[in-house]
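Entry 12.
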Amino acid sequence: MQSIPKEFATAYQEYDRDITLRKTQWGCILGIVLVPVFGGLDYIAYPKQALSFFLLRLLCSTLMAGLYLVLKTDFGKKYYHFQGLVLLFLPSATIAWMVFATEGTASPYYAGLTLVLMVLAVVLDWPIWQSIVSVALVLALYLTACLFSRWPVDTRLFINHLFFLISSGIAIIAGTYYHSGVRVREFVSRSELDNSRKALEVSLRQLKENEAQLVHSEKLASLGRMSAGMIHEINNPLNFATTGLFTLRKKGKHLAPDQQADYAEILKDVEEGVNRVKTIVSDLRMFTHPDTELRDKVVVAEVVAAALRFLNNESKDQVQFEQELPANHTIWANKNKLIHVLTNLLQNSLDALKTKTFKDEKPTIRIAGHMENGVSILSVRDNGPGIAANLLDKIYDPFFTTKDVGEGMGLGLSICYRIVREAKGKISVKTEPGKFCEFTLEFPASEKKQGTH
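Predicted 3D structure (tokens):
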């Protein structure tokens, strides 16, 4: 029989136990039905003993029914091969008694022992050792029945029957040896194929992720090239406008008192518009200067505290913040950019929570971090409306937004994506519409881990 590779040994043992238990239960059912049915042959061969033999057969069936129940217990599952031997013993001992009670070596019941061996060998898929023990057990029962029977031993018939039983036993052992090898080879081949399939699925999934990252990186690169020219063209007029606003504010002092309030309000609106444009330009600059700042070991708690300070006016007491951050939890990144990423994610969560009606729960944002295999992991989870499945492949695209006009440019997650990738990290999202949305950031925990992502 082919040996089982070590990596499959435990799995094969589980597989063998499940299969053997199920087949032993079927063997019990088969025995419960067939053992009494063969009582018809007792009536034909030995009509005077037919009733006592039938009662003996019913006892055997009852014991096999009990064995069926034992197989469902922890004991039966633990010693499942032993239960197979018990199943063999019950009908074999019944038939051996019939041999003993009829004509000993001349009894035709010896054929029943061979039948029991062959049926159970086929039904139970014995391992080689169990096959040898089973054949030896049947031979021992037959020898005991013949030698201790009150009938004289017919040497010719005894040798003939014994030869037939031994030959059948050898055939059963040989067949079991071959079939056991086939079972092992099939299981190993199936397991290797399953492992290869899983490895292929992982590779395909990784290829798809890499392809998506390359496409997205190319989009960001294209945006960066375009943004470089836009920033230069926009900054000059902005500087002129800012200088002009400063001059206009000074000139406003010379207006009549009743006109100054309206004048100041108009200037304020213009300044807010200019500042809004400056913010957009600042976001675009992220794409044109991808890696100009140094990275260092950043304490996560400090970054979270800074991001929450920026959003203090936004959240007030309307949102519950939960933090689960281990002491001395660090990330290898640029602190300012990491604050930018976390601020964007928290702002998105706050905006999402505003769009959901809460009844039995409070709007909550949970920030959690932990270390795993040398990787520093930080997650932001909210119990907002989540993200629709058809939008998941677009959320990192530049200028993609589900917000109303004027409420967002659609650059927040794109910037987060770029910053995380620059830091040799990874960003992913898990969401269930109507229940939650969770962004997970994975970063190297130290400089030596940068090449791992």
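Annotation: The radius of gyration is 41 Å. Confidence is low (pLDDT under 50) at residues 449-453.
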